[in-house]
Every structure is written in structure tokens, then in C-alpha cells.
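Lab notebook, bench 4. The sequencing result for the construct came back, and we need a structural model before the next group meeting so we can plan mutations. Quick request posted to the team channel:

Model the 3D structure of this chain.
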Amino acid sequence: MPSILHYSDLLFMSQLPHPSEHVRPKYIWPWFVLAAFISGILLAALWFWGELRKVQRIRESTREGAYSALPSATSRPKAVSISWTNGMVWIPGGSFSMGAEDGQPDEKP
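Done. Here's the predicted structure in C-alpha cell form:
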């Protein structure tokens, strides 16, 4: 007995791809992964740039403070080479007590 095809079946069959055509499914998730990866790289670059600017500001303010604390070159006595001490100075020995009499037991002298 032959099967009867309705008009709606013909419409559906006309929308199906031909069996010889290979239709690849379209995936959206790789685009989201790529967008997240690119966003991560951009955010990391912006963070790194901000940290770099912060370090530069700290260096500039430290350098300006160091130069202002030095006496002028005309009033400075003849410099003595202290390169062998790595910039350390000699402080004569003495005695001192550290702590407080009225503090916690581990703070007393």
C-alpha cells in the first residue's frame, strides 16, 4: 500500500539538505571563548600599564625628595669616599634600653 504524502510533508522535505551536501553545525561557544581570551589579555595589559605608571610616580617622587634633602653642592664639604662601606656610616657604640615600663610583659626592657 503506497503512503500518502501531505502538502506539509512536501514543504518539510524541501527544506532538508540534499543527502550529498555536508552541512556543518554552527557553534557559537568558540567565539565566546575567543572574546573572553582577548578581553583577558586587554585587562591584563591595562592592569600592567597602571602598575607601571604607579611605580614610575613613586620613583619620581622618591628621586625628587632625595634631591631636595641633599645640601647644595657649594656648601658641601669635600666628599670622602665611603664606597667600601656600601653607603653605611659608623655609629659609635653605647647602651640603651628598649621598651616601656608600663606596657605588656613582652614590651618591658
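Residues 31 and 37 are 10 Å apart (CA to CA).
Will bring this to the meeting.
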